[in-house]
Amino acid sequence: MAKHTIVLIPGDGIGPEVTFAAKRVLEAAGLSADWVELPAGASALEQGFENVLPERTLAAIRAHKIALKGPVTTPVGKGFQSVNVQLRKKLNLYAAVRPVQNMPGIKTRFENVDIVVVRENTEGLYSGIENEIIPGVVTSLKVATEVACTRIARYAFEYAVRRNRKKVTVFHKANIMKLTDGMFIKASRKVAEEEFPQIGYDEVIIDAGCMKLVQDPSKFDILLMENLYGDLMSDLCAGLVGGLGVVPGSNIGEDTAVFEAVHGSAPDIAGKGVANPLAVIMSGVMMLRHMGEMATADKVRTAYREVLAEGTTLTRDLGGTAGTDQFADAIIKKLG
């Protein structure tokens, strides 16, 4: 295995606990890496940096092209701008990819869920263009460009080809948002028809799509959507298989990628050693595949699925009593 240099962003709250547990698992599986540990989020301010996303952290990711990131704190309705939004925009990480699958040993209302949410990551309402016109009147601008719409559509279809997926479904609201969402489905339709005729394609108005998802999620394959819809739907889909603690996340750019747990920083349990590191471990598996370390990725995936199936060493969010390190140790033991 080649040696890699990876930026490690522990994050806030439970972030350091779960990211270091994931790091132990990945190294036990055979990953050879130099880790460049740097802060982001509230922890960056605590360490004396002037902002929540230090230029040193950005520069390291640009230089090394890959990062594994823990959860960071984002204030609601006040305070600093979301670190995640800043990271995606400044590094042009245009594709958020979240695979959602049923996991062994985790019972949910649904079976045979195998969905990948592909979300445009840089535009839409998350462009952050908000203005107070007069006191009590605020506008928020939704931004869409043909370049970005086409780019994310092409990524979704290329992903389908690489992973032998069968269909891409666009969730949209073009019946109301005729220009922005209209541009999105027009670009998606063009890519589907002209470049990927072998992949199935359809379009669903998002409110009807939500209903269809909770009726029978097994009918969906890849879901493609703009930024806000993708944020909402990726969490909804996670709920179909057990929640944010059992799904990974990645943010992909042209030559840079950041892999992250998509759950929160859970400050109420920080430092107690009880957080579930599985989402970061799963994100680490996505990172391994991105780096071309397929055998190591398969090894880790097989190990954590065996631990889940046995059900004897689970964290409390999964119905067990194990702590963060106990769960990681159980996976490492399965690695042999």
TrEMBL record:
Which controlled-vocabulary keywords does the entry list? Answer: Oxidoreductase
InterPro entries reported in the protein's UniProt record: IsoCit/isopropylmalate_DH_CS, IsoPropMal-DH-like_dom
SUPFAM superfamilies xref list: Isocitrate/Isopropylmalate dehydrogenase-like
Any Pfam family hit: Iso_dh
Is Oxidoreductase among this UniProt entry's keywords? yes
The Isopropylmalate dehydrogenase-like domain covers which part of the protein?
5-331
GO terms, molecular function: isocitrate dehydrogenase (NAD+) activity; magnesium ion binding; NAD binding
User: Which GO terms fall under biological process for this protein?
Assistant: isocitrate metabolic process; tricarboxylic acid cycle
Query: Is Oxidoreductase there in the keyword field?
Result: yes
Family from the record: Belongs to the isocitrate and isopropylmalate dehydrogenases family.
This one is known as Isocitrate/isopropylmalate dehydrogenase family protein
